[in-house]
Structure formats: structure tokens, C-alpha cells
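Inputs:
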Amino acid sequence: RGPKSLLLQTRPLPKNVNTEIISKQFTASPALATIEYFRARRGPFTPEEKRGKGHLMMASTHWKVERFVAIAMTGIMPACLFVQGATMDHLLSTFVYLHGFWGIDGVLKDYLVKFVPWIGKVWYLLAIIGFAGLVNFNYNDVGITKAIQMLWSL
Ligand code: HEM
């Protein structure tokens, strides 16, 4: 976001913001500001951002959903070996795909969006095409579990 980055803004925060609670506002020399520009943004976040303005859910709720999905995968992965079929294939693909999607999405948002603002749209497009491919594979081929087993037995 260049010089408009929240980190580099010097305008005062709204009166209702408790600066003891949120991160200190950034003020620095141009040299330090350049270094700061290349760091991933970890705040200060505006109250609107914390509430998840423009998003479907609060960031903390999203974080919990991500962890729920990651933990669920530890059960779904071995379960697929014992209970096989289309339902398990779709469950496995959906959970692993969601996890991988959010994982990469987070890395892109933390490190790349700042330099390539449209990268998120490319990622969403790739992700939709990729997921469609997986669903197609589960419907019209041996399914993801069987495919992994076949790969292992090579
Ligand atoms: C049961 C297996 C797995 C578990 C329990 C698991 C768990 C986790 C957890 C807890 C995180 C968050 C780490 C953090 O925020 O500090 C994470 C990040 C991530 N995971 Fe997994 N994961 C598993 C398998 C996978 C697989 C199969 C993929 C690839 C599709 C994957 C891709 C990622 C990515 C891209 C990140 C983000 C890395 C980052 O932020 O630097 N994970 N995983």
C-alpha cells in the first residue's frame, strides 16, 4: 500500500481507541520506515479491522475454524483408510483443501498482497479450479483415498 500503509500513517487515531491496548502507532525516520515497509504487517489494527470489517466473520472466529479444520484432519486422514467411499473422499478433499487454501492465503496476505495487490484474486481463481478438479476426480475416477493408496503401492 506504499506510503498509504497504515504503519506509516501519522494521523491521530479515533478518540475511542485505547492506545494502551492496541499496538503503538508507528512513527519512524525514513530509513526505519523503509525497513518497516518490508516487514509483514502485524498491527496496529483499527477497531474496524479487528471486528472483521469487509469479512464474513471475525478474525478470531476464522482462526478457530482454521484450527478446528486442522485438528479434524488428524482424525479424517486415518479414518479414510478404514471407511472408504465417496463421502470420505469428499470429506478428506474438502478439509485438506480448505486447510491448504487458508494456509497459503494467510502467507499471501501476510507477505505478498502488499506488493502484488491482485494476488488474492489469482489465488481464489486457482483454488476454485483446483477444487473443481478434485471434486471431479472423486466423482469420475477412483477417488482421492484410493489414488493415494495406489501411489503408495508403487
Ligand atoms: C493432519 C495434518 C495437518 C495438520 C494437523 C496441520 C496443522 C497445521 C497448523 C496448526 C497450521 C498453522 C500453523 C500456525 O499458524 O502457526 C498449519 C499451517 C499450514 N498448513 Fe498444515 N497441517 C496438516 C497438513 C497440511 C497439508 C496436507 C497441507 C498442504 C495441503 C498443509 C498446508 C499448510 C499451510 C500452507 C500452512 C500455512 C503455513 C504458514 O502460515 O506459514 N498442511 N497446518
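The pocket of protoporphyrin IX containing FE is lined by residues 70, 73-74, 77, 96, 99-100, 103-104, 106-107 (CB under 6 Å). Flag for discussion at group meeting.
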